Structure formats: structure tokens, C-alpha cells
Amino acid sequence: MTEFLTYNFIQYALIACIMASIGCGIMGTYVVVRRIGFLAGGIAHSVLAGMGISYYLGGAPLSGAIIAALVASILIGWISLKWKQNEDILIAMFWSVGMALGIIFISRTPGYNVDLMSYLFGNILLVSGQDLMLMLLLDIILFVLVSVLYRQFLVASFDEEFARLRGINVEFYYILLLCMVALTVVLLIQVVGLILVLALLILPAASASQFVSSIRHMMTLAVIFSLIITVSGLIISYEPDLPSGATIIIIAGVFYLLSIAVKNTIKKAAER
Length: 272
Hints:
Elements: H1 2-5, H2 8-34, H3 37-56, H4 61-82, H5 87-107, H6 118-121, H7 129-148, H8 150-158, H9 160-165, H10 170-208, H11 215-238, H12 244-271
Helix pairs in contact: 2-7, 2-10, 2-11, 3-4, 3-5, 3-10, 4-5, 4-10, 7-10, 8-10, 10-11, 10-12, 11-12
């Protein structure tokens, strides 16, 4: 383990696990309690369009990812609020069209770089110092917004009528929440890639929901669970040279199933 930690890229990867776990635990909680996983999936897969266009124009793929994620979250949020009867179809359209646009622009980029595929499936071992700074910035933005607007998000999430009576603009906070989910998607792309990002966003928070009901406690536990999952996946995948993103997601799935089993065991023991 000492030798394992002496490599700079491993140290960067572990720091990335911490950064990703913070955003994942905080925003994953809102995704689970508001049941907007499908919306988050639409945002995640729309990101490839921005990455492909940015790469085609010679820019940084993650810069395009941030712009595309924010634009997609605003459009999807507006569609969700205004065209509820067509929500599933329209989100599926964003999902597929975003992926298709990204693939087209990537394929037309001169000197196509295969390393861009790491954004699809994740390669945490390729995280750079610049990537870590971006992840830190995104974490700070998410933490500050949640800290300052915690009560508004709480009321708008669980009691929309009461929120409206108190003069809270529910629609604004809903779209802002989706924008924050979009930033979290970009945060997690470095770890598991945008194809698998939805699972890492949801499963640690879903596991935490088995044991606590308070939003604050659920966020805290989800951050801890996410950190355990990502670090375990990194360590397990390293020696046999397995894809780190896929390994992390498998562990997240097993972790969720174990959390359900533990909860049921505790419940049965309490009933005796």
C-alpha cells in the first residue's frame, strides 16, 4: 500500500475520489428524494454534445461539458415544468440527440484522439492537477449554494404549495437544482465517465436513505458511502488493471444491495 501511494497519479486519483464523493453525496441526495434520476440521466448524456463541439473547435472538453450540462439542465427543467405530458419522450430526445451530436463532432475532429473516450467510460488515473482544481471549484460552488439555500430547496422539494404560499419561486429553485446536478455530472465524469455517472450519482445516496431520513444526515452518509465506494473501486481495479469506472459502479451496486439486506435484517431483529 505504501508503494501504491507513492505514485503521483494515484495520489491525484485519491484526491479526485474525495472531491467527487462530496458533490455526489450532496446532490445525489436531492436526486433520490426528488426522484429525478431520469432527468439527471438526460443531462448527463447531453454533455457529450458540448464535449464533442468543444473538442472539434480546439477547446477543453470539460469546458464544453459544463456549458452543455447547464444548457441541457435549463431546457430539460423548463420542458419538465411546461410540457409534463411529453416529459419522458423529450428527455429521451435530449439523451439520444446529445450523444449523437457528440459522436458526430468527435468523428469529424482532425487527428481524433482516442483519449477522449475516457470521458465516456472514465479513467480516474488520468486526472491532472488542473482537473482537480476544477473539481474543487465545482465542489465549493455546490457546497455554498446548498448551505445558503438549504431551507428553500427543502421546502420546494417536499411541499410546493407551502413554498408558493411563502413566496418561494418553486420553478426557479427546481431549475437551479437541475443546474447543480449538471455541475455534479461534470464532476463525476472524471471518475466513472458520463455513461456510468448516473449510477454513482444515485446509488450512494440511495444506500444512505436506507438508514436515515434527515436530508442533512443523508447527505453526510452518502458522502461517506461514496468515498468508500470510489476508493475501494480504485484499489481493487489497480492491480488486475481493470477499468476503474466500471469497477466503482459494480461496487456501488453491490453496496446498495447490501444496504437493503442490512436494513431488512435490522428491521426483522427489531420486530422480534
